[in-house]
Amino acid sequence: MRDSTPDPTNEHSEQHVPGGENNRAGCVMRKRSFLLLAFALAVAIWVVLCFIVDCRRWKELAFPAAVPSPSPAPTLAPTLEPSLVFSSSLLSQQPQAYVRDVCEYLRQRWDPARSAPGTVVVAIMFHSVQEGGLYRPGDTFMPAEELTRTVRVAQRLGFQTITAAQLADFLEHNARIPPRSMIWIVDDRRPDDVEDYFLPIARDNGWTVTLGWIIGDTDHRKGLWQRMEDMNASGHLDVQCHGYAHRYIAPDTPEGVIRQELFDPIPILEQHFGQKPVAFVWPGGNFTPRAIEIAREAGYRLAFTSFSRGPLMYNWIPLGEREQEVGDPLMVLPRFWARPGLAEHLRTAAEVAEAAAAQALKDYPREAEYYRTVCDSELAPPR
Q: Rg for the chain (alpha carbons), in Å?
């Protein structure tokens, strides 16, 4: 009887291995995974090479990009920087603009109901007036004969006076004022000079005189308040504030002192003169950035220094470096000193005003185009 058991030594004997088909399928899957892994590795290497070398050329060859159609060039808004601040060789200081909204500035500049371009204001600081005194450099008084000469020149040039409130309206909004204006400011308490010199001039010319009044011991000077109230009733005085006790303000001045100088005079001046002061005259011309902040807090719209920088126009105030640092031009306004030669400053201001008006007409087409393009409106035509 033949043995049916397979001979293990027979190489050609047929054997059945359990699970063989599954092993072959797994082998195929492993080969596919290896190929996918190799392809992914090749792509990764290609990406790295693109960062190392310039692959833009490869991209252009493999994927040629469509040629884009040219886009229209953008319309650029005209610039106003050269014409915003008119400059003059007659001034030693560069004027500063302060209206931040250019569209609002242009609208008010050319509004026919407001002041025309070239309208100018000369702020003048007076102390005392003396008859026949020998003037020496550094003196603060105005010789009476020079005062008379200044009045004649002002009349001939067509200057008129304005009040502090009118000046504030002009500088803030270009409100209409005389084309050639002055503001005469008499510092300290000078009732005799006001009564003997300034009021007669004001009456004769229909002018006003602004007083930088110190409260001080006015309460204890018999009859002084009544005297000043009587003069104020003439309609030719414009009483503003020059401090409570005329204390100079320095960086080390206590804030309480600053507040007393700025706040305490307000109700007293209102009581005696019927109006709240809008302007403050810095005692000694001294100010600090903090004092200016407090002055704004107190409601003052203007403040004057003792620097002589030049005349004033709308959005145009000549300032020195110290005034520029505070960033609030209306609170550091310059004033001409009342001394021999004051009349020449009036002539210079008139020349500056004429040049500014002529330059404004030249700038009008560009400003009108700016207003049309950026402000989306039309400027009023020049006058």
A: 41
Q: Return the bridge partners of 186, or none.
A: 126, 211
- This model's pTM is above 0.90: no
Question: Could you tell me which residues come within 8 angstroms of residue 174 by beta carbon, excluding any fewer than 6 positions away?
Answer: 108, 109, 111, 114, 115, 119, 314, 315
> What is residue 366's three-state secondary structure?
helix
Burial class (CB in 10 A: 0-12, 13-18, 19+), 248: middle
Beta bridge partners of 183: 123
Per-residue pLDDT of 170-209, as tens digits, reads 999 999 999 999 999 999 999 999 999 999 999 999 999 9
- Beta strand spans in 290-361 (E): 302-304, 317-318, 336-337
Q: Which residues, at least 6 apart from 14, have a Cβ–Cβ distance to it below 8 Å? A: none
Name the residue ranges covered by the structural domains of the chain.
24-62, 81-373
Q: How many residues does the chain have?
A: 383
**How far apart, in whole angstroms, are the C-alpha atoms of residue 29 and residue 11?**
30
CATH number of 81-373: 3.20.20.370
Query: Whole-angstrom Cα distance, residue 163 to residue 171?
Result: 12
* Distances, alpha carbon 222 to alpha carbons 14, 228, 246, 270, in Å: 143, 12, 20, 20
- What ranges make up the beta strands (E) of the chain? 95-96, 120-126, 128-130, 141-143, 160-161, 180-187, 209-213, 237-241, 279-281, 302-304, 317-318, 336-337
| CA–CA gap between residue 49 and residue 28 (Å, rounded) | 32
